[in-house]
Design goal:
The protein has 212 residues and is mostly beta strands. The protein has two helices and twelve strands, in the order E-E-E-E-E-E-E-H-E-E-E-E-H-E.
């Protein structure tokens, strides 16, 4: 049992899953094993990555195309989540539109007035030969869910990539690493640490049911 709760919000317009970490609301069922089981590369349909080496990570949910790992922080109110999933790139005519596509996703996931964006950086990169867009986003959550405690604001920081799958042009792989904390407890090393995890991604052939 883990002292973390996860809320999953689905935006029907984009068919993308946005994950916001909640404060400790009680136990979250461990559906995929403890952190000690996550030392090896995790294989999903079309992609894989190496999870963080720290103890305490567990698989919160998993399907062939999507996985969510979660971990409570050492400081009260801190929580971490890593999510990988498929996203459709079928509306893009070429990869030059990928940055605009990613910017729209980011905006939908931190809607005003609840969230105020403090930092938002988008850049192009390559991972394992794939064309990707890297995002670093820091937002202030003005209506945090904290299990009944009175809290005026919390910080949600994310580092994410959307990569065009090398062998399936209409499919993207999105990986997101999220950190939630009180403003005074923000981890200034998080961006570098999160990028290191996302850069371990590798890509493999897609199951035929997802292929073009």
């Amino acid at each position: 049992m883990h002292n973390i709760a996860i809320k999953i919000r689905v935006f029907s317009n984009t068919n993308l899953i946005a994950v916001f970490l909640c404060a400790a609301l009680g136990a979250c069922a461990n559906s995929g094993g403890s952190g000690s089981d996550l030392s090896e590369r995790i294989e999903q349909d079309g992609y894989s990555f190496i999870p963080p080496k720290q103890s305490g990570w567990f698989i919160a949910s998993r399907s062939s195309s999507r996985i969510a790992l979660a971990k409570s922080g050492k400081i009260d109110g801190q929580s971490y989540l890593i999510e990988g999933l498929h996203v459709s790139l079928s509306t893009l005519t070429d990869l030059t539109q990928l940055r605009q596509f990613v910017a729209k996703i980011n905006k939908r996931e931190v809607p005003a007035p609840r969230f105020r964006i403090r930092e938002h950086e988008i850049s192009d990169t390559r991972i394992a030969g794939a064309h990707c867009v890297l995002t670093h986003l820091v937002a202030e959550d003005r209506q945090p869910e904290t299990g009944g405690n009175v809290v005026t604001a919390m910080i949600v920081e994310s580092v994410s990539t959307v990569c065009a799958h090398p062998t399936s042009a209409e499919l993207g792989i999105r990986m997101t690493f999220l950190h939630r904390s009180f403003p005074e407890d923000r981890d200034r090393a998080f961006e570098t640490y999160a990028q290191g995890v996302l850069l371990t991604q590798q890509f493999s052939p897609i199951n035929k049911q997802f292929a073009n």
